[in-house]
Amino acid sequence: MDTQAFLESPCFNRIVDLDGIEGSSSYRVQYADYGYRNEASEDEKVLLFLGPMFASRMVHVAKNDFAERHKVRIIAIDRPGFGGTDAVGTSKRLDVTRAITIALLQHLGIRHVAVACQSGGTVYALDLLLHHPEILNPTAPYFAIGAPWVHPSHTGAFAMSMTSMLPGAAIGTLDKWVSLFQAISPIVTPVTGVALGASQIISGPGVIPSADPGDDEDSKREADLFPKCIKYAHTQSITGLSDEAIFLMKKVEGLDGWGDWGDYDNLLPRLSAALRAAGKRLAVDVYFAEKDMLIGDAGTKGTVWLTECFKKESETMNFESHVVKGANHDTVWDLKHGVPGTVFLKL
Description:
This is AB hydrolase-1 domain-containing protein. The protein is α/β, with parallel strands linked by helices. Helices cover 37% and strands 16% of the residues. The protein has an eight-stranded mixed sheet with strand order 1-2-4-3-5-6-7-8, with helices on both faces. A hairpin with an 8-residue loop joins strand 1 (14-18) and strand 2. The chain starts with a helix and ends with a helix.
């Protein structure tokens, strides 16, 4: 299969119109449903992946063959304003993402999933689990975070601390800057950072990190396909990128934080209570990048703060943190670093 045929595969470009989202009888959602399929099995291993700030379903589809061999089915959804998913107001972003995720799982007949996320997807994933712990596997609930997003108020990381000082109106032009860089230099794609979003605005356009492949064939194939997947995503809507930036930087007018919980130190005790009520003990793996310009390197202030937040909930969560050597904020989930394979084996 040639590259264009791969990118246009139906499994990466599914569309559904959902009822009852934002009071609408037809809210359009685009998603990818790839990897392994066994419709005859009720024990199918399904991984719901909530992507980074560049919240396109295409970010990790280069792992399709790898997931298929590991018999893992992956669901990845375009968040509002990306791809074919309808846009919403910034203040509604979290609630609508949660609603369309649950509605899509129901539409697909998927009762239970493991959950994984990257960077900005951490906020959405934890919010989803707080409000819907029932989607987790009843016997072995599992949650993996690669390169978590931590707000600059907890990290002291220079790049994001400076960005947090910008007014929301300035941050809200991010999608236009990214589109401009893409038009000027389509080979040097400005998609990295918060993950795959902001660091290029801070440090200027640079080569996509995954262009440095590992030694195995899976890693080489991913390194070859990844820039093409992102370029394909840029042919569709990315207007949601500005809203993502405003939301993740807590710059939404009239709101003090994320959702009805504010920040992780408030959410995790509530999630713990929900897990306790459901009789579940959640296994949590967090993979920190060795070098991370957005939240600070592994072992620095932001990573320590997040680790302590999770460790306080040891009654209901088996928490483990890991440092991914050689990885940065964008590349933690690259096949060459081994995290996807490790996670797949735990499902």
